[in-house]
Amino acid sequence: MGEGNRDWVVVGRIEGAYGVRGWVRVRSFTDPPANILDYEPWRLQLPQGHRDCERLEMRPHGKGFVAQLAGVDDRDAAAALGGAEIEVPRDALAAAGPGEYFWSDLLGLDVVTTTGEWLGQVETMMATGANDVMVLVGDRRRLIPFVQDSVVQAVDLDAREIRVDWDPDF
Asked: Looking at the domain that runs over 103-164, which CATH code has it been given?
C-alpha cells in the first residue's frame, strides 16, 4: 500500500446508501466511535481519487452512523460512494499518546521477527473486538495481532519497521 499521505488520517468508511434521499451509512474507526462526529473537514478516498466532502448532518444509527453529504441528493449518488474511506486532516486529531499509533501510520511498515526475518508489509488493519490485527502481504498473507509487549516488541516509525515475537511458520 505504500506510505500514503501522512497529512490525512482515515477515520471511517462509507458502507453504502441509507434511504432514498442521498444519506449514507458510516462506519467509524475512531475510539470511541462517536469521536468521528468531532472531525472535519472530510475527504473521501475513492478509486478515482480524492473528493472533498461537506457533511451537512450526521447522527447515530444502529451500530454506526448515517450522514447527509452536500451534493449527494439521491440513492444512486449515495450508493456510488460505498466503500469510500473517510479521511480528516491529521491536525484535526489529538496527538497519539505514548505507545499509541494511528492505523494510517502503520500501513506500509515492514514487519520483522525478533531474529530479523521479514514477514511482510502492513497492508491494512482490522478491529476484531479483542485486539487490532495487522494484515500483512509478503511471500503470503499473514494476520498478526497488534498486541504490544507480548507480540509487538517495538514500533519504529522513523525506520518504518515493526518488530514482532512471531513464528514465521504461522
From this structure: 2.30.30.240
- The pTM (predicted TM-score) of the whole model is 0.68
CATH architecture assigned to 8-91: Beta Barrel (2.40)
Q: How many CA atoms lie within 13 A of 46 on its CB side?
A: 14
Domain ranges, ordered by start, for the chain: 8-91, 103-164
| pLDDT tens digits along 31-83 | 788 989 989 999 999 989 999 999 999 999 998 999 999 999 999 999 999 99
CA distance 68 to 73: 9
